[in-house]
Amino acid sequence: MSRIGRLPVTVPDNVKVNVSGNEVTVEGPNGKMAEKFNPLVEISVEDGFCRVTRKNDSKAAKSYHGLYRQLVQNMVTGVSTGFSRTLLINGVGYRAEVQNDRLVLNLGYSNPIEYAIPEGISMETDGPTKVTIKGNSKEQVGQVASEIRSIRPPEPYKGKGVRYEDERIIRKVGKAGIK
């Protein structure tokens, strides 16, 4: 049995989980999320817990078992507390600021880059070199953070670029001079 799939999802008091047909809907203080699930698994809600069980022991059912349990867990966490990801910008003259519904990035290119903030995502800048991305969907927060990081990924010699807060850049030694 799946080690992740057999664990029940604890549903807080301020969150409602509803299963109808092959769709699970989670509603909480931060919004509402819905996800369709495969008919090889079954989702049930009782006594403040949400359980995911598989209907048979086929390879596909086993793989969906842990997946849908974790997706339900992420939806419950998203509508109750939300997710956030922090990006750090390193480099002389590199900076970011939020203007209306756009993130304006100056990353050493000839023109500033404007990134349109998608619906369901909020961004804050804590100073010119720290951007915090917040949202209900863990997938969407991670995707937006990845897209912003890909504009100027950190380089290994000086460490300049956009990196995740918990990312460690392995630095390389520069060119050795000839004596």
Task: Summarize, please.
Helices cover 20% and strands 38% of the residues. The protein has 179 residues and is of the alpha+beta class.
Folded structure, characterized:
- With 179 residues, this protein is α+β, with helices and mostly antiparallel strands.
- The chain has two domains: 9-80, Ribosomal protein L6 (Outer Surface Protein A, domain 3, Alpha-Beta Complex), CATH 3.90.930; 83-164, Outer Surface Protein A, domain 3.
- The protein has helices spanning 59-80, 138-151, and strands at residues 9-10, 16-20, 23-28, 31-36, 41-46, 49-54, 83-90, 95-99, 102-106, 113-116, 121-125, 130-135, 161-164.
- The strands form four sheets. The chain has a four-stranded antiparallel beta sheet, covered by helices on one side. Strands 1-6-5 form a three-stranded antiparallel beta sheet.
- The longest helix is centred in the middle third of the chain and has 22 residues, at 59-80.
Outline the fold blueprint.
Blueprint: E1 9-10, E2 16-20, E3 23-28, E4 31-36, E5 41-46, E6 49-54, H1 59-80, E7 83-90, E8 95-99, E9 102-106, E10 113-116, E11 121-125, E12 130-135, H2 138-151, E13 161-164
Antiparallel strand pairs: 1-6, 2-3, 3-4, 5-6, 7-12, 7-13, 8-9, 9-10, 11-12
